[in-house]
Amino acid sequence: MSTPYPIKLAGEELWLLPEKAIYWPAQEALLIADVHFGKAAAYRSLGQPVPQGTTSSNISVLNALLEALPCRQLIFLGDFLHGPGSHAKATLEALARWREQHRDLPMTLIRGNHDKRAGDPPASLNIRVVPEPLLLGPFALQHEPDPHPSRHVLAGHVHPVYRLHGRGRQSLRLACFKFGGEISLLPAFGAFTGGYQVERDESCRIFVIGDNEIWPVS
């Protein structure tokens, strides 16, 4: 696991992880958004030539985090599976083997828009599936970045990226965390996901991920 970057949000300490996740020490909770398991398989089922091995790559990163951090719960902020084609035999078998490795770890999925289309994970994976929001401490854990009347929202869905500009026309587009006054966004965890460019202003903080480190944008 890479070096975490601790921040304070809504009175809680959160660790931003270069693996594109958040660890919440007080709850011993690992928060993951938009893993999109089986996305490549879904595209291949439509005849699209896309990379293989994305599920195993995502599982490998998850395993490293779970081995390095004391976790009492793993919470997915939506889009666990990408679509109906994600129920490919090889994808589900890989997920079953992974779940067996962590059979005693409680896991929760906050149902996202892709989960509604793909269907819930197989019951054999023993993942509790709930609608948004999931209220925990000062946070409303959600998939969609919609405001909550009394809690700070931690959400996914957007797949935020930020463009850093260098000399001349040089620029770099990097996955990022975006923290606002009421709503904060996690980057997409999945290895085969796109991104939506976000901008920085005085109302938010942005932290980009590069070279396995977290970098605050000033």
Helix content: 10-25%
Termini separation (Å)? 25 Å
Number of domains in the coordinates?
1
**C-alpha Rg, in Å?**
17 Å
Residue runs with pLDDT of under 50 for 5 or more positions = none
How do the helices and strands follow one another from N- to C-terminus? EEEEHHEHEHEEEEEEEEEE
Shape: globular
CATH topology label: Purple Acid Phosphatase, chain A, domain 2
Alpha plus pi helix count: 4
In terms of structural class, how would the helical and strand content be classed?
A: alpha/beta
Beta strand count: 16
CATH architecture: 4-Layer Sandwich
Q: What does the largest sheet look like?
A: 9 strands, mixed
Global mean pLDDT: 88
Percent strand equals: 25-35%
Describe this structure in words.
- InterPro entries: Calcineurin-like_PHP, Metallo-depent_PP-like, PdeM-like, Pesterase_MJ0037-like.
- One of its GO terms (molecular function) is hydrolase activity.
- It holds the Pfam family Metallophos.
- Residues 30-119 form the Calcineurin-like phosphoesterase domain.
- This is Calcineurin-like phosphoesterase domain-containing protein.
- The chain is of the alpha/beta class and 218 residues long.
- The chain has one domain: Purple Acid Phosphatase, chain A, domain 2 (4-Layer Sandwich), CATH 3.60.21.
- The chain has four helices and 16 strands.
- It has helices spanning 39-45, 54-68, 89-101, 113-118, and strands at 5-9, 12-17, 21-24, 29-32, 73-76, 107-110, 128-130, 134-136, 139-141, 152-155, 160-165, 171-179, 183-185, 196-197, 205-210, 213-216.
- The strands form two sheets. Strands 8, 9, 10, 11, 12, 13, 14, 15 and 16 form a nine-stranded mixed β-sheet that branches. A seven-stranded mixed β-sheet has the order 1-2-3-4-5-6-7, with no helix packed on it.
- Strand 8 (134-136) and strand 9 (139-141) form a beta hairpin.
- Helix 2 (54-68) packs parallel to helix 3 (89-101).
- The mean pLDDT is 88.
